[in-house]
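For the sake of clarity, the format in which proteins appear in this thesis is described at this point. Each number in the token line that follows is a code from a learned vocabulary of backbone shapes. One such record is shown here in full, so that the layout can be seen directly:
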Amino acid sequence: MRLARGSTAWISLPLFLTAALALVGNWYISAVALVGSIFMLFFHRDPDRLPRGEGMIAPADGRIIAATEGGITIFMGPSDVHVNRAPLAGVVRKTEYIKGGHFPAFLAWASHNQQNRITLETSDGDVELRQITGTLVREIVCYVRPGDRVARGDRIGMIRFGSRVEVTMPKGYRLQIKMGDKVRAGETVIAVKRP
């Protein structure tokens, strides 16, 4: 199983705690720590994926909680993969960290939470992707820098625990998803160019 970049510390600490508690004979707390270790392994998984079809693909796993011609919002639940991917091929023009609140990620107010904005210049126009934290750990990891070229579906970052991703659409694209749909980062087509 492939693990997300930068996840070693998050996984090794509960594994060390599990082993240490087992060595001193504290089996009950060791079992609890083992469950924590399994959760961390599950949460930080990063499966290989290939884009399907043509068009703009989902930048995150999760459920669609907003879908307009202006943009799409995806809520990532605890069981979703939290690694984010490029929705289209292009060049990273800007990354910007913005301080903000810590509302639950499924609320509309979460658009004003702490976030990282990635502006991607594509052949069809600019796309802005916003990695937004929720109420818990609130850590955003960005894998890309200005000037980087990314292919459609490349890994561009991760958000730890409760979170959401918002993405704008270039002009001339139409939605292929609707409210409530489940999508998979790097695979599900969320918008296509109008004929």
Notes: The first helix runs from residue 8 to 23.
